[in-house]
Each structure stands twice: as C-alpha cells, then as structure tokens.
Amino acid sequence: MSHWACGIVGCGSVFETPEDLIGHQVNDHGVCTCAICGETHPEGFLAIRHAFAEHTRAEYVRAYDANSDDIRLREQVKELIESQVDVPSILSQLGVEGEDPAVSASD
C-alpha cells in the first residue's frame, strides 16, 4: 500500500490515504496567507491547489521567489492528489468552505 507523507516542513507524518493526509493538514496544521492575493488557506495541498488554480505561474514565481523546479514539484503534487481524491467530497467532509476553485489559471 502507498503511503502519503506530509510535506509541511518539520512534520513528516505518514498516512495510508491521501484523504487522511489532507485531513491531517487541515486539522493539525495552521493556515497560511497567499502572498499573491492575501487569502488564507490550510497549509499543504489546499494552499498549493489555491495557488495554481487561482494564480498564474508568473505570479507564483514573483511572490514566492520560486523557480521552474519549485513549480513542477507543486504541480505534480496537486495533480497526483487530485487524481486520487474526490476533492469536493473531502472538502465537504472536512467542512472546508471556499476551497473549490472551478477554473484553473494558466501562465
């Protein structure tokens, strides 16, 4: 069985399912503020999802002093989790509102 490790700095907790990982990030970690728009989101996957669904890659690079490797890694995390999880369903179960961007931005 695959294991899902929390990628938040200093955590390293491991979970059997991506749903458990997202629940951990929502319930056991704080929120972060988007450096682009100022909205707050749970740390981890939902923050990554927000950044790449609501903002362009160029905005992300400028706001986070990121490079193409940083972007590729986060996009891979986002795509992998979204391919394994019914995101609207898990957000509803966790009671996380306003976290379901309908349209992805591109650069």
- Described by the principal axes of the CA atoms, the overall outline is globular
Return the average pLDDT rounded to an integer. Answer: 89
* Low-pLDDT runs: 101-107
Secondary-structure-based class equals: mainly alpha
The number of distinct structural domains comes to 1
Count of beta strands: 4
Question: Helical amount among residues, as a percent range?
Answer: 40-55%
Query: Span between N and C termini?
Result: 36 Å
Describe this structure in words.
The chain has helices at 18-28, 45-54, 57-64, 68-84, 87-94; strands at 4-5, 14-15, 31-33, 40-42. 50% of the residues lie in helices and 9% in strands. The protein has 107 residues and is mainly alpha-helical. The strands form two sheets. The chain has a two-stranded antiparallel sheet. A two-stranded antiparallel ribbon has the order 3-4. It starts with a strand and ends in a 13-residue tail after the last helix. The protein has one domain. α2 crosses α4. Residues 101-107 have low confidence and may be disordered. It contains five helices and four strands; from the N terminus they run ββαββαααα.
Considering the chains and any ligands shown, give keywords for the structure.
107 residues; mainly alpha; 5 helices; 50% helix
Question: Could you provide a short overview of the structure?
Answer:
By secondary structure, the chain is mainly α. Helix content is 50%, strand content 9%. Helix 2 packs across helix 4 (68-84).
